[in-house]
User: What shape does this take?
Amino acid sequence: MALKPTTCKEAIARWEKEKGETAADAKVVELQFQWPPIEKMDGALSTLVSCEKLSLSSNMIDKVVGIAGMRNLKILSLGRNYIKSFAGLETVAETLEELWISYNQIDKMKGIGVMKNLRVLYMSNNLIKEWVEFNRLQECPALRDLVFIGNPICENQPDVETWRNQAANRLSQITKLDGIPIVRDTE
Assistant: This one.
């Protein structure tokens, strides 16, 4: 018999019991590694009104929903899920500063441009293949730290130096790429 997936409401209740805190008042809520895994984000997450950092990594989530009420969210960790797009993130675009979304199935960057305050984007090991998609990151003026290694676009470059030069030239705002500072000519 297959196990029923954990709901966000159940995961929040479990977190509250373990921590002895009220999730609605917490600044950091960690719902990663649930067993059985969370498959769907839902409106229960909107009760986390004080939350500044939410971790839902290492579950089986396929899309971002239910976070519209999270008006203080600064860091969202969704690594190692089955997410295919940035749809749903626009509801936290005003406050979100860091998005950790590595090891998912994102192949298009549509929607990333609404995140004007995004400083950190960790999205290694996704499915971005084309420069036209990568270039959408130009719409994120605050972006400084980008991890993109493991996407087909990186692997398709002749070498790491070519990848770094291409990426740095296209995104003049970034100061760190794949964990290594970017050194630019100041002339």
User: Anything to note?
Assistant: The longest strand covers residues 28-30. The CA atoms of residues 86 and 111 lie 6 Å apart. The two ends are 66 Å apart (CA to CA).
